[in-house]
Specification:
Blueprint (H helix, E strand, L loop, with lengths): L2 H12 L13 H18 L4 E2 L4 E2 L8 H6 L16 H6 L14 H12 L19 H10 L23 H12 L10 H13 L5 H13 L1 H14 L2 H13 L18 H12 L4 H10 L8 H10 L1 H4 L10 H21 L18 H11 L2 E4 L22 E2 L10 H24 L5 H22 L10 E2 L1 E4 L6 E4 L7 E5 L21 H8 L7 H14 L20 H13 L4 H9 L12 H6 L12 E2 L2 H12 L11 H5 L4 E2 L2 E2 L2 H16 L7 H18 L21 H4 L19 H9 L1 H17 L3 H13 L5 H13 L9 H10 L2 H4 E2 L1
Antiparallel strand pairs: 1-2, 3-6, 4-5, 7-8, 9-12, 10-11
Length: 855
């Protein structure tokens, strides 16, 4: 690629203004040529659609300033100085690939003038006015905040306080809790029953109900030594692979994990699942949290000792690529600026509990973060290419949503372990390549003139892109290639341009790359040959900032106790909530770092504390003083989250499969547009079914209208159910997370919005939830399976009732509950087509508050 064009592409992707020769450096001949030959034509023929003054910027292309003419619009740089054949403007006025002006073609003389002008280096006196940077936040404001605000001061080791009852505390955590309660004159609740504690531990640590065997074993151990019973049980749960599935899902909430772009043009992310599995494995391995951070922010820049380690590092950077994207944005410069903004927002809120992105358009209104700090961080991210789209293709990106997006996927250095049918793969690959060649030949034969032909070419380009993407996912032997989303450094580092009010057409001066001043002490400047992203990752993943350890400790405490120490989990700024136990927060943050950033060690300490095992019994006197239970005088009752409810039903029915499914339903669908719950076009699904039948039978597959209609109906049924996944029996963490099209079992119970950073899920009780538990096919199927499971294991009605209670609630029924259940079963009238009585009884247990809540 020509150097000018390469520079222009870098600048366009970064969202910066480009440095070009100043107007005062133009010769008189150059100036005369532009004013007499070029400017009049631009004003007469181009400004109506491509200028700010005209109020119309089609295709994101402005031609009324030098900088924006060089930056170009959605399709690329309009002018590449010195390279007329690579300048899209010249191609457009010649009516080659584009037809501009659309109603008539410029004269041959005018076209020759533009060619000569570009060959001259595109001399242009139309300078954009450069704004100055002004800020209301002074250095004194920043210093004062660092000295006075709790979140900006480094965590300090704190000795556990003395308490009146030295026998009650079992860990240092308990002393901090009890001290606060005693200061407020509050009493703490008694211990919960062992059945409630074992259920609490199972759901908190692995997201599943205890098995009947676990309940019985824990009861026996509790009678002998309650402390040891908890300690041994916690260690076993922490070592199970289900731990990573539970805590990995918590992390996926925070990092806005989704398997599609969202918004109106909702394209799938077929390889997002690799990041999901990376997160789960990291929690299971108890990967040091500081390394976990660094991999996600700058894994592509961290040295690797093997292909496997390099693969893991690349997959980790999916964190920066997986956010929602507005593919309707036609201006590629605006798209790139929005992409960097989303990355800044995610990094600062997820790891630092601070929203630096609030300073994109103006100084932060509440925290001492000037707008210049935002653009200092923008420079750290804008030098990387973000890969989120379709597989790379030798034929280029032509599809409707990729034409204006320089993005594909990264090829991994390890083989994809997906099983594949070699015979089918080779036949299908040959068919795709033949079809692709036909489409390319058809495109070349279509004439260059006229809007109808242009529309035909666009349609063919889209079809070529779809086919080439399919060809690209396998090698010549039909073996699947390994791809992942993520980022990689691609250019010589440069600083970002300050944008007044965040507007791309109001550029200011360059802002040196750096970190927010209020969060750093005396950070070294970023080296000229470094983007600074690795330095950012290492700084965030260290004890050199005041927030990272606190933010993660706070997240862990929330999931274990049901209420965070800082309830605004993603906002540790001045508009967030102050910590209820600041000394405990600092104590745990320091211990977290000293443990080698071990998540499991912190969870183990909390689970073994005395405060973790207290009951949720109500105390009116305490309630009058502390109605929100901020001081933790009792356990917080919590509704189970959507995944735990679904997994608990599968566990009770005996249908739950613990093997990890390979990939995702989205990966099976491929790179497609989501339409109303469909993963792709039913016609494409039918074609795939026909091709499969032909490949496996080695014969042409023929079907009449009736067969086609039946197949179409079958495909619609299968695809409309693809996102609800009622037949899936693996854990809910592996269900597809398609933005705006969540499975019903997740959506109805307040699943985290995959387009946002969610540290705390909403918790609602709605009629839709009750209706789901009454009528949903999945709930009914699990109720029937649970009834069969119990019937196969027990004969006596009372034994069956007891078994159902243990499976659903982790406890045996009371005498009153057993009597009421027996009466219901004996009097239940079975009508035509109704399920068996015991299946209805099991479903009624699923529908209770006790099943859905954790006490």
């Amino acid at each position: 690629m020509n150097g000018w064009r390469y520079l222009a592409l870098i600048v366009a992707v970064a969202g910066f203004s480009i440095d070009v020769p100043a107007a005062e450096n133009l010769t008189s001949d150059q100036l005369q040529f532009f004013e007499s030959k070029i400017r009049p034509v631009l004003i007469a023929e181009c400004y109506g659609c491509h200028s700010d003054e005209g109020g119309n910027v089609r295709g994101g292309l402005r031609l009324d300033t030098k900088q924006f003419t060089l930056l170009g619009g959605s399709s690329g740089p309009a002018v590449v100085p010195g390279e007329p054949d690579e300048s899209l403007m010249l191609s457009a006025i010649k009516h080659d690939d584009f037809v501009m002006p659309p109603k008539r073609k410029l004269s041959d003389a005018q076209i020759d003038d533009f060619r000569r002008w570009i060959e001259m280096g595109a001399p242009d006196p139309r300078e954009s006015q450069v704004a100055t940077v002004q800020s209301s936040i002074t250095g004194d404001d920043i210093r004062e905040a660092r000295e006075s605000f709790w979140a900006y001061r480094m965590p300090q080791p704190t000795s556990p306080p003395s308490v009146n009852d030295d026998l009650w505390p079992k860990t240092e955590i308990d002393r901090f809790i009890l001290d606060k309660l005693q200061q407020s004159g509050l009493s703490i609740a008694d211990d919960a029953e062992p059945d409630k504690i074992v259920r609490r531990l199972c759901f908190d640590l692995v997201g599943l109900p205890p098995t009947p065997e676990q309940v019985q074993s824990f009861r026996r151990q509790w009678e002998i030594d309650s402390d040891r019973a908890i300690g041994v049980f916690v260690d076993r749960l922490l070592e199970s692979k289900q731990f990573g599935e539970r805590w990995g899902r918590h992390w996926l909430d925070v990092v806005r994990y989704g398997e599609s772009t969202g918004s109106q043009v909702n394209m799938t992310f077929p390889h997002a699942w690799r990041y999901r599995d990376f997160v789960i494995d990291s929690f299971n391995d108890d990967k040091p949290f500081d390394r976990f951070i660094q991999q996600q922010i700058a894994g592509d820049l961290i040295p690797a000792k093997s292909d496997e380690q390099w693969t893991e590092n690349l997959i980790a950077t999916t964190f920066l690529a997986i956010g929602p994207k507005n593919l309707n944005e036609q201006n590629r410069i605006q798209f790139a600026a929005d992409l960097v903004d989303e990355q800044i927002d995610a990094v600062t809120r997820v790891f630092l509990g601070t929203s630096v992105a609030c300073a994109r358009c103006h100084d932060h209104k509440f925290d001492p973060i000037p707008q210049s700090d935002y653009y200092a961080m923008a420079g750290l991210f804008s030098n990387a290419t973000t890969y989120f789209g379709n597989p790379p293709s030798e034929y280029g990106n032509f599809s409707e949503v990729q034409a204006n997006r320089t993005s594909s996927l990264m090829v991994l250095p390890v083989d994809d372990p997906n099983p594949f049918d070699r015979q089918y793969a080779s036949v299908e690959l040959a068919r795709l390549k033949t079809e692709l060649s036909d489409k390319i030949r058809e495109q070349r034969q279509s004439g260059p003139q006229g809007n109808a032909n242009q529309a035909s070419r666009i349609r063919l380009n889209n079809e070529i892109a779809d086919l080439s993407a399919k060809v690209a996912v396998v090698d010549g032997a039909g073996r699947p290639r390994s791809y992942c989303m993520g980022v990689q450094e691609q250019s010589t580092p440069s600083d970002a341009t300050f944008l007044v009010r965040g507007e791309i057409d109001l550029p200011g001066p360059k802002i040196p790359r750096g970190l927010p001043k209020v969060l750093t002490d005396s950070a070294s400047p970023i080296a000229n040959d470094s983007s600074g992203r690795l330095e950012l990752a290492r700084w965030i993943g260290s004890d050199q900032n005041s927030l990272t350890a606190r933010v993660m400790v706070n997240r862990i405490w929330q999931h274990m106790l049901g209420r965070a120490i800082v309830t605004s989990t993603d906002n540790f700024g001045s508009t967030g909530q102050s910590p209820s136990h600041p000394e405990l927060l600092d104590h745990l943050a320091v211990r977290f770092v000293e443990s080698g950033w071990s998540v499991k060690d912190l969870i183990r300490e909390i689970a073994n504390s005395h405060v973790y095992r207290i009951s949720s019994s109500f105390n009116d006197d305490n309630f009058q003083v502390d109605p929100d239970n901020a001081l933790v005088w009792r356990a917080n009752q919590r509704r189970l989250d959507a995944e735990a409810i679904r997994d608990a039903m599968l566990s009770a029915s005996g249908q739950l499969k613990f093997e990890r499914p390979r990939g995702s339903e989205v990966a099976k669908a491929g790179y497609v547009r989501v339409r109303g719950g469909f993963l792709g076009d039913p016609r494409e699904a039918i074609q795939r079914m026909v091709s499969t039948a032909q490949a496996r039978s080695r014969q042409p597959f023929r079907f009449g209208t009736r067969n086609r209609d039946s197949m179409m109906s079958d495909v619609y049924d299968r695809m409309s159910n693809a996102l609800d996944m009622n037949d899936a029996t693996y854990r809910s963490v592996y269900l597809p997370v398609v933005r705006d099209e969540l499975p019903r079992s997740l959506d109805v119970f307040d699943f985290a919005d995959p387009s946002a950073v969610i540290g705390t899920r909403e918790e609602s009780n709605t009629a839709n939830q009750s209706l789901y538990m009454m009528n949903n096919p999945f709930v009914i199927a699990q109720s029937q399976a649970m009834a069969r499971r119990i019937a196969n294991a027990y004969e006596r009605p009372t034994e069956r009732i007891d078994a159902a209670f243990v499976l659903a609630f982790g406890r045996t029924p009371s005498h009153h509950e057993r009597t009421a259940a027996a009466k219901f079963l004996s009097t239940f009238s079975i009508g035509a087509g109704q399920p068996e009585a015991f299946a209805v009884f099991c479903q009624s247990l699923f529908a209770t508050a006790e099943f859905r809540y954790l006490d």
